[in-house]
Amino acid sequence: MTAPEAESLRARTVAPRPSVWRGQGLVVAVVALGGAIGAVARYAASLWWPAESGGFPWTTFGINVVGCAVIGVFMVVITDVWAAHRLVRPFFGTGVLGGFTTFSTYAVDIQKLVDGGHPRTALAYLAATLLAALAAVWLGVTAARRVLKWRQR
Q1: CA-CA distances (angstroms) from residue 100 to 20, 28, 37, 49, 62?
Q2: Per-residue pLDDT reduced to its tens digit, 1-10
Q3: CA dist., res. 77 & res. 84, Å (int)
Q4: Which of 91, 34, 96 is nearest to 66 (CA)?
Q5: Which residues lie closer than 8 Å to 133 by C-beta, 6 or more apart?
Q6: Quick one: CA dihedral 59, 62, 68, 73, positive or negative?
């Protein structure tokens, strides 16, 4: 077989690789929709409870802690209880809760506190958010599993 014949045969037998994006458009759309909903909810909370300049950013702290607790409960529900539709996790987990929790604002708040001459408050906020967020996920998972166990009796 000549080189051109071999190339022609290979071109006919090797299937083209599917696009990475093929079939992902709907997932991207539901993440975007969920993210918009979560971000609007977070923004509304920041308007209702604005943080004082130089003070502890309680609203962002609360949003992140509550969001982490909900993530813990949600993950137990969709893994242990409910065979959710394939778009539920991207929509609610990644989209809504990802848009609602705001660790980028957390970083900006820390920088503002440091720049504003409040390094102790910044350090307290840094540590408290990290610890409270981790504890909230753990408590959400633990509480959800205990409720499930109690309901199964």
Answers
A1: 28, 17, 8, 15, 11
A2: 676 666 766 6
A3: 9
A4: 96
A5: 64, 65, 68
A6: negative
Burial class of residue 34, CB neighbours in 10 A (0-12, 13-18, 19+): buried
CB-CB contact of 41 with 86 (8 Å) = no
Burial class (CB in 10 A: 0-12, 13-18, 19+), 152: exposed
Structure tokens at 21: 């994006």
What's the whole-model pTM score?
0.78
Query: CB–CB of 31/95 below 8 Å?
Result: yes
- Alpha-carbon distances of 62 from 52, 65, 134, rounded to whole Å: 15, 5, 13
pLDDT tens digit sequence for 79-104: 888 888 889 999 999 999 999 998 88
Strand, coil or helix: what is 133? helix
Q: How many helices (H) and strands (E) in the chain?
A: 7, 0
